[in-house]
Amino acid sequence: MADLSTTYMGVPLKNPVIVAASSISNYVDKVKKAEETGAAALVIRSLFEEQIHHDEMTMADFLERAANISPEIQSSFYPPVEHGGPREHLMWVEKTRRAVNMPIFASLNAVSPGAWTSYAKQLEETGIAGLEINYYIVATDPDVPGSDLEKALLDIVGAVVSEVSIPVSVKLSPYYTSTPHVVRELERRGAKAVVMFNRFLQPDIDVDDEAITNEMAYSTPQEMKVPLRWVALLYGRTGLDLALNTGVHSGRDVAKALLAGASVVQVASACLQNGLPYISTMLLDLQGWMEEKGYESLDDFRGKVSQKNVPDAFGFERAQYMQLLMSQQ
Ligand SMILES: Cc1cc2nc3c(=O)[nH]c(=O)nc-3n(C[C@H](O)[C@H](O)[C@H](O)COP(=O)(O)O)c2cc1C
Description:
- The structure is a single chain.
- This protein is α/β, with parallel strands linked by helices.
- It has one domain: Alpha-Beta Barrel (TIM Barrel).
- 41% of the residues lie in helices and 16% in strands.
- It contains 12 helices and 13 strands.
- The chain has helices at residues 28-36, 49-69, 72-77, 87-99, 115-124, 146-163, 179-188, 225-234, 251-260, 269-274, 278-293, 321-327, and strands at 6-8, 11-13, 17-22, 41-44, 47-48, 104-109, 130-134, 168-172, 193-196, 204-206, 211-213, 241-245, 264-267.
- It has an 8-stranded parallel barrel, surrounded by 7 helices. The protein has a two-stranded antiparallel sheet with strand order 1-2.
- The longest helix has 21 residues, at 49-69.
- It is globular, with a radius of gyration of 21 Å.
- The chain starts with 5 loop residues before the first strand and ends with a helix.
- The model is unreliable at 65-84 (pLDDT under 50).
- Residues 20-23, 45-46, 107, 134, 171, 198-199, 216, 219, 245-248, 267-270, 272 line the site of flavin mononucleotide (FMN).
């Protein structure tokens, strides 16, 4: 039997399949099912900054109204406002963590520095194995250059890393001008892994209603090519673990990710579409493929088809762009 064990940010895992941050973590039963069907670890859905502000505002508003009725109500019955927002999320993270044996990672959707270090610390106190920073920003202000936005990310990560002692990963967007530079700077700030990449919902327009529509569509295997390329380009060129995310839909996709150099994969859509038992199908397929190839462990082939290890080093860069275009009739 091929050995699927690996490590991610120093955390030992029984195999390389992690359930990505998603609605699966909304239910303890589903998290348990994910573990039973073979998932090595799970990322709990993000604690969002908007959620914190919204909850804090709601709590602040409530307390203000309550104080008008009875000033004691504030101090006697309710926690301080700053702890009102993410409290339920923190309790949920801890409850989930206690319900399973597999490592549980938490995710923080940071935009501004400051309060974020304190939420990172509080998440750490729930006993999680590591923390994923989910940096999601849509740049709309032409006065703000990309370098400022990158600096903001690096500042957040540096501040969080210095606040916690658990390993920190960063879930990146695929839209950086120089992904290798961002990854190197994240490593310098003490991150232990990058998750490549987040998959953003793209708004659509309904031409009948002439209005914006938003739909939660699942990924397709075709979408794996973007992270696959970047994992292949970065493997062996960074000390960070590379978690390939987006478009992993089969055991063969997991094999592909590992050949490119991924430490682990993160999977959401395939689990939501096919049900959690599908994780065991993916693992059996990976195992079958490894046995066919004569591989005994993941290290036997990890990074074998990364840019560093293939004869055609340009294959992952412009991907024979010109020849392919010219050959089309
Ligand atoms: C229903 C749903 C909820 C999600 N919630 C989060 C979240 O809270 N935080 C996050 O970083 N990503 C979230 N994601 C994104 C996934 O973690 C993942 O990055 C994305 O779905 C791409 O992986 P996939 O191709 O396996 O679906 C969510 C995805 C789905 C489908």
